[in-house]
Amino acid sequence: MQLIPCPWCGPREEVEFHFGGEAHVAYPADPAALDDREWAEFVFYRANPAGALDEQWYHSAGCRRWFTAVRDTVTYRFQSVDRPGAAHPNGRTRA
Description:
CATH architecture: 2-Layer Sandwich
Shape: globular
Strand order of the largest sheet: 3-4-5-6
């Protein structure tokens, strides 16, 4: 079983967490103006790279807090975890 490093609780077993999807996906500014195709793209289409990806995770069986992580989608290894709002390595602020 993989250990996921919660920024508040430390390493915990992966069964304590829920995946929240790709991080930093902005909600549409005017959702009423979107047609069905645009809504489908917002809801279902994500980057899905082979490699590092910014993700949201929820520690549901622990502190019950959200955090952001950079995880390698090929190896499933977590490269970093941060509390929301922490500075991102490339300079932007994490959501």
